[in-house]
Amino acid sequence: MGFKNFKHHLFARIGLLIVTIFIFSALIYSDSGNLSRLLLLGLVILQGYNLYYFLERSESEISIFLKRIQEETLSESEPGKQVSEPIYPEFEEVIENVRELRSDKEAQHQYLKTIVQHVTIGIITFEPSGEVQIFNSAAKSLLGVNQLGNINDLKRVSLPLVKTITELRTGGRDLVRLVRENEETQIAVYAIELSLKGETFKLISLQNIQSELEEKEMDAWQNLIRVLTHEIMNSVTPISSLAKTLEGEIQDWFKKNNVKIKDEELSDFHLALHTIHKRSDNLMAFVNEFRNMTRITLPNLKRVQIKELIERVLILLKYEIASTDIKIKLDVIPDDLRITLDENQIEQVLINLIKNAMQALQAEENEIDNPTIKIK
Asked: Dihedral (C-alpha) 107, 109, 113, 114: value to the nearest 10 degrees?
């Protein structure tokens, strides 16, 4: 092993130096000539210098090696070229271990960095000075910012957001309204304050909860619709039933009492009751379809005479039209024109169209002479 070789070299030098000193000491008290003593003295000095150089070189190279480890500047191509040969194997092993640790550390760093960049929740970390350390892809997309050097740079996006981010403490949460490109977004902001290696920083997570709010709003609307449709059905059902009953009883009363009435008046009276009954049924059908807003109902198609359908709508709106100066002109060619459609849905459409037209004419600032709605 390298360190054993190092010790062998060291002990050999020390041993040889001791032997030389011992011989030199013996020569001093012997009858040997001065030349022999000078040669041995020179040898002692040379061996002493060699031992000093050996120890100094080893200490220097170990210091350089440790400094390189501390600075993490180990050469990957020449791991031990500047290290003493006797202890090189151990140095090489240490170098390989350090490299492996650095490689594992870098791999873990890249792994965590990739995770942070790909999570769907926006993440921002910054120091007390405001300098941003992490600004992931989700946060960039949510805020519409590609680069962020300081947290205060977000003021150009939203002042309330920056205020919330800087004031929140560990465990705090708040809701911020963000408007981008005329589109409103509700962002949930969460904060955690951390301390790492004596340095403090704040971690902010941002989450777009607009879809969750819209979903809850839709649930609330659906609950309201269910309540309203229930109340409307309870109110409309008796009207339809009474109109149908009244229509039958009046016909029976006319026949029983032999009451004479003009055919035209009887026809209008009968048609009015029939229209009330029919419209009530259609309204109930419309409410039933409206009850479930998430389902698109299939139309109930059948052949319908257009003129009869429009006249029924006009009778329904007769008194509302009479309260205005608006005239209605109906022109259907031919009179018996029939079209395949959903009678209930188209009837509701016609009612809305005629009412909208009447409101538009009444809303005109300049009065129109002989306001007329033409239906062709």
From this structure: 10
The pLDDT score that the predictor gives to residue 289 is: 64
The pTM (predicted TM-score) of the whole model is: 0.44
What is the DSSP annotation of 17-79?
HHHHHHHHHHHHTSS--HHHHHHHHHHHHHHHHHHHHHHHHHHHHHHHHHHHHHHT---SS-T
User: HEC string of 277-317?
Assistant: HHHHHHHHHHHHHHCCCCCCCCCCEEEEEHHHHHHHHHHHC
Q: What is the DSSP letter of 131?
A: B
Q: Determine which helix (DSSP H) or strand (DSSP E) holds 229, and give its type and residue range.
A: helix 210-257
The predicted model gives 286-314 an average pLDDT of 75
Assess whether the previous peptide bond of 86 is cis (omega < 30° from 0): no
- Report the relative pairing of strands 338-342 and 327-330 from DSSP bridges: unpaired
Contact predicate 122/138, CB 8 Å:
yes
pLDDT tens digits along 112-151 = 888 888 888 888 888 888 888 888 888 888 888 888 888 8
CA distance 101 to 111: 15
Nearest Cα neighbor of 23 from 9, 37, 10 is: 37
- Which uninterrupted H or E stretch holds 12? helix 2-28
Contact 186, 180 (CB under 8 A): no
pLDDT higher than threshold 60 for residue 360? yes
Sign (positive or negative) of CA dihedral 107, 109, 112, 113:
negative
pLDDT at position 217: 73
Strand 183-196, strand 199-208: pairing: antiparallel
Structure-token match 């040997």, residue found: 32
Q: What is the pLDDT of residues 336-359, one digit of tens each?
A: 889 898 888 888 888 888 888 888
Residue 153 CA to residue 149 CA, distance in Å, equals: 7
Place of tokens 């009858």: 31
What is 162-193 written as a DSSP string? HHHHHH--TT-EEEEEEEETTEEEEEEEEEEE
